[in-house]
Every structure is written in structure tokens, then in C-alpha cells.
């Protein structure tokens, strides 16, 4: 969890859910609902929902490779900065830099476009990824609401 969220204009929540594809929609709606506290534009909500969708889908398809596991989505904000951390405890990524290249996919046989991280970067203001093989992956995203 992020530190320094005791300010008056701060809030946070943690959602833990199974890596079932139907829960991708739950994550999107939850992130959008949490974000409404900051009075975002419809475009900002759409950007957030797309980035969350890509991150959760990566957990399901790549992190757990179709097996069931736990996904955590931690949402927080300070002032106008919205933070989203999405964590899986799956197979991890051996080469994060390579995985973040546009069009790269480790699952070409599954019709994956390799654009997940590219979309996350395009729709959020900051993106970083931490991963360790056989331990899982954390995607950190930040979006400034109401520029």
C-alpha cells in the first residue's frame, strides 16, 4: 500500500478478486466508481477503465496463464493524483523491458496484440512495472485528474 495517505484530501481502497475473466469488468467499474470522488471527465474515466482492463487482462492471461489466482487492485489518491496498483502472484515477467515493447507478446498463439502496456502508458500519466519470475507482477499507474 502507498504511504502518506493520511491527508484530508486522500482516500484508498483495496479490492481482491479471483483471476476469472468476468472479474475484469468488476475491476473496471470499481476503479471508475472510486475515481468519481475526484470529479473526473468522462474521458478520464474511460482512460482509467481501459488501463485497468489491460492490466487485469494481463494478470489473467499472462500472470496466471488461465489458472486461478488472486489479483489485488489498490486504488488511492492524494489531491488530484490517482494511483492504481494491480498485483498478481503468477509466473512473473523475466524481461520487463522486452515485455513493455509495443507489439511484443509472449502469447502470439492466443491472438494477443502485444499492446497492453502501450495502452496503459497512453492512457495514464505514469506507468512502471515490477516483476520477478515465479513470484508475480505489480503494475503501478498514476493519472492526474482535472488538469
Automatic annotation (TrEMBL):
It is an enzyme of class 2 (transferase). Residues 43-147 form the Histidine kinase/HSP90-like ATPase domain. Pfam families: HATPase_c_2. Keywords: ATP-binding, Kinase, Nucleotide-binding, Serine/threonine-protein kinase, Sporulation, Transferase. One of its GO terms (biological process) is asexual sporulation. This is Anti-sigma F factor. Its EC number is 2.7.11.1. Belongs to the anti-sigma-factor family. It catalyses: L-seryl-[protein] + ATP = O-phospho-L-seryl-[protein] + ADP + H(+); L-threonyl-[protein] + ATP = O-phospho-L-threonyl-[protein] + ADP + H(+). It comes from the Bacteria. It comes from Blautia obeum ATCC 29174. InterPro entries: Anti-sigma-factor_SerPK, Anti-sigma_F, HATPase_C_sf, HATPase_dom. Binds to sigma F and blocks its ability to form an RNA polymerase holoenzyme (E-sigma F). Phosphorylates SpoIIAA on a serine residue. This phosphorylation may enable SpoIIAA to act as an anti-anti-sigma factor that counteracts SpoIIAB and thus releases sigma F from inhibition. SMART domains: HATPase_c (SM00387). GO terms for molecular function: ATP binding; protein serine kinase activity; protein serine/threonine kinase activity; sigma factor antagonist activity. The gene is spoIIAB.
Amino acid at each position: 500500500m502507498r504511504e502518506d495517505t493520511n491527508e484530508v484530501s486522500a482516500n484508498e481502497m483495496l479490492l481482491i478478486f479471483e483471476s476469472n475473466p468476468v472479474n475484469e469488468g468488476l475491476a473496471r467499474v470499481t476503479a471508475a466508481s472510486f475515481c468519481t470522488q475526484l470529479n473526473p471527465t468522462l474521458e478520464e474515466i474511460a482512460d482509467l477503465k481501459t488501463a485497468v482492463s489491460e492490466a487485469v487482462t494481463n494478470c489473467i492471461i499472462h500472470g496466471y496463464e488461465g489458472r486461478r489466482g488472486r489479483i489485488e487492485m489498490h486504488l488511492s489518491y492524494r489531491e488530484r493524483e490517482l494511483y492504481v496498483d494491480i498485483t498478481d502472484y503468477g509466473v512473473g515477467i523475466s524481461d520487463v523491458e522486452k515485455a513493455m515493447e509495443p507489439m511484443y507478446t509472449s502469447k502470439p498463439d492466443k491472438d494477443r496484440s502485444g499492446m497492453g502496456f502501450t495502452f496503459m502508458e497512453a492512457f495514464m500519466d505514469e506507468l512502471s512495472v515490477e516483476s520477478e519470475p515465479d513470484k508475480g507482477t505489480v503494475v503501478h499507474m498514476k493519472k492526474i485528474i482535472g488538469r
